[in-house]
Amino acid sequence: MDDIKIIATNRKAYHDYFIEEQHEAGIALTGTEIKSVRAGQVSLREGYVMARDGELWLMGVHIAPYEQASARQAVDPVRPRKLLLHRREINKLLGGVQEKGYTIVPLRMYLRNRRAKVEIALVKGKKQYDKRATIAKRDAERRIERESKEDR
Predict the structure, then answer these.
(1) Angle at 83 (CA atoms; ends 115, 15), nearest 5 degrees
(2) Cα angle value 121/122/128 (rounded, 5°)
(3) Is residue 134 situated within a structural domain?
């Protein structure tokens, strides 16, 4: 039975990008970092994924230092963290990034069976008019839903 607890969501990514495909990846964390993740002290807002030496690294994600840890155990809150994926998945994502306009961003971080996982997605950036169109479409759907409830 999968026990999932969502820690952080990157709502900005849903606004700024078209999501093409999603993958679940494990994250290599230190002992104090996993304690901070379990406490929910994570920000995915500025996060992105970078390829280095055939591996994927999570960059720009802020995991606050664990309060009860000693100064010796402190690590950089935005240090690069290795993503744990199968080679086939890495190659598929890297192939997608080779196309113009595609990048990889983290969407959610959660705990599945007490292990930290991050949902990453191959995305394409939205233009300003795309963002406005998305907002208009969402508002229209809400209005239709509201009117249908009133009719009932």
Answers:
(1) 95
(2) 100
(3) no
